[in-house]
Amino acid sequence: MVEIAPSILSADFARLGEEIAAAERGGATVVHCDVMDGHFVPNLTIGLPVIKSLRRATRLPLDTHLMISEPGRYAEQFVDAGANMVSVHVEVDAHLNRTLMAIKNKGAKAGVVINPATPLSTLEEALDVADYVLVMSVNPGFGGQKFIPSVLDKVRRLRRMIAERGLTVRIEIDGGVDRTNIGEVTAAGAEIIVAGTAVFGVGDPAQGVRDLLDASTTVASGK
Ligand code: DX5
Ligand code: ZN
User: Is residue 89 lining ligand 1, measured as CB closer than 6 Å?
Assistant: First the structure.
C-alpha cells in the first residue's frame, strides 16, 4: 500500500497545524519532518520543540528525518518528543546499530537513510535491524530539487535485496517526487512517498495529496 508523507519543509511554518490537517484530508497518512543542523547539510530547520508541538497538533505518525551530524546523541529524544519514526543517515553514524536499537527500544520505527551517491552495500549489516530504508532521490538539504532518475534502479535493487533476505523492511523515498514520476517510484518498490513541493507548493495541500495518490498507480508509457 502506498502512503503519502508530506514534507513540512515546504509548508507555511506559521500555519503548520492547518497545513497538516489539509494534507490529511487529501489522504496523507504520515507527516515527514526534516531536521537539519547546518553541519551535515548546509541548511537549518526545526528540532525537538517543533516535534513536541506537532505531536499535540496531529494524530498522524510523525516521521523525523535526521540530517544531523550526531544522530545517536538525539535520536531517543525525538521519540520522547513524539516521533513515531526516526531515520538516521548511514553516512554519519559510526554506531548505527546502537542508534537503531535505541530508537526501537523506545517503541518507534527505526530507519536508515542513504544518500544518492552512497552504495546499497553500506546497508548490508543494518538491513535486518532497520524497520525501513529512506532512499534519498535528491542530495539532502533543500526542498524543491530535481529527482535523480538513477535512484529508481537503486530502489529496485534494494527491493530485491530485502526480498532475498526474507525481510519486511519498508522502502521510503524522498526528494523531487511529483505527479509525473510517482508511478515509476512506486512501481520500483517504494511504499512511503515523501513529497514537499508537490503537496505544499501547489496551493491546496489536500488536492496535492489526492493527485499524487491518483498518479501513484500510473507508470508513464515507454518507461
Ligand atoms: C530534502 C528533504 C526532503 C524535502 C523534499 O533534504 O529531506 O524531505 O523536503 O522536498 P521535495 O518534495 O520538494 O523535493
Ligand atoms: Zn526528508
Answer: no
Distance 208 CA to ligand 1 centre (A): 15
Long-range contacts at 146-153 (CB < 8 A, ≥ 24 apart): 146/176, 147/175, 147/176, 147/177, 147/178, 147/181, 148/116, 148/175, 148/176, 150/116, 151/116, 152/184, 152/185, 152/188, 153/188
Atom in ligand 1 nearest the alpha carbon of residue 32: 8
* Closest C-alpha residue for ligand 1 atom 6: 140
Q: What digits encode the pLDDT tens for the residues 132-153?
A: 999 999 999 999 999 999 999 9
**What pLDDT score was predicted for residue 219?**
80
Residue with cell 511504499: 191
CB atoms within 10 A of CB 44: 11
pLDDT surpassing 50 at residue 199: yes
What is the distance in A from the centroid of ligand 1 to the CA of 175? 5
Q: Which ligand is nearest to the CA of 139?
A: 1
Residue 17 in contact with ligand 1 by CB distance below 6 A: no
Residue 222 in this model has a pLDDT that exceeds 70 = no
pLDDT confidence tier of residue 218, bands split at 50, 70 and 90 = confident
